[in-house]
Specification:
With 404 residues, this protein is an alpha/beta fold. The chain has 15 helices and 13 strands. It has a seven-stranded parallel β-sheet, with helices on both faces. Strands 10-9-8-11-12-13 form a six-stranded parallel β-sheet, sandwiched between helices.
Amino acid sequence: MKKLAIISPSILPIPAVRGGAIEQLVTYIVEGNEENHQYDIDLYTMDDPALDEFNYKYTNLVRIRVQNKRHPVRLACAVAVRLSRIFKETTRYNYISYEMYRNFKKDYYDEVLVENNMDTFSLMLKKRTKEKFFFHLHNDFDPDQFSDEAKTKAKTQTVIQNTDKILVVSKFLKDKLIRYGAKESSISVVYNSIDRSKLVKIDSNQKRILRNKFGISQNDVVFTYVGRLVEYKGIDKLLEATKNLKSAKNIKCLIVGDNFFNTKKDDEYIQKIKNIAVEIKNQVIFTGYVNNSDINRIYSISDYVVVPSQWEEVFGVVALEAITMGVPVIASRSGGLTEVLNPKCATLINRDSEFLANLTSAIKKDYLNTKQEYSDLSKEASRQSKKFPQTKSEYYRQVLKAFT
């Protein structure tokens, strides 16, 4: 039996007991392997007490404990990180990545899958002998507003030159890697998966109770945002569009999510969206964080889902979840979103100077849809969703196929 190491992004634990999109997808791989045993897996993950509940037959959890800040190894890593900044080194290793490497280098594997962390990938290469190395890219590796171009190119070239295959979540990412010099044959598109069995509509009575809980009447038309409350996600655009339509009192805007990293910039942005919301306080509901196991309940009370991203979304899990439940979407014409959606189940809006005006028009148009028009959108949404992996076993098989 082949032995596979999966190196997590080192942000949240896996299985996905604390949420996280990548963490959930890796959980699908592990659980798919339990059903279709192809590998003996060592999964390198952040530790968490909740992991005590898991006892896989074919996967060993290599749990990396977060030591006290005064622990010698952690202190040494902190010094190394600071020096890397001073000397402007391309690669930076954090404490968790280094601890993963310390454990990783003690063992031998046939294949290694590194999930979405280019710095950790470079570190793991130091131990490489005959293993096949795969890198799974989940995000835009060169978003203009964040990246240092020289460092990004260097890290990306390290991945391109040292992988047997790069797995990407969309053709958008594949095309971008090719522009960076990767060979087309070295890249496999593995679309993100959802678990269709968990995306089931609640019944009409439950729907009425939940709407009442949020102060939403049965006649209100609900436009929902699901995700982090950060600037590049464009929540302010959705609220401004709602404000433009405030004369339509039964338009409700449901904002689901929180500020994950709590940076100063994010806090300032949350204040900005709260200031906009004050002007339409009877039309906006902030739910805060909703556990992924309950997200079907949110989609069940939503008439439309809005994805107003102001950067390149590499895929669009929220959009896929929505259409799987037959909820039409309004979204930015952004990256991989154009692969998830089609014009028969979604309105796609160009990210230009007219974005807000066009978003307002799209919401108004959908608000005025007849029951038949809405039914047609909903049916097409469900049909479109079936083009993507819908079970953990299906996703697992696609990942394995990408290895070949």
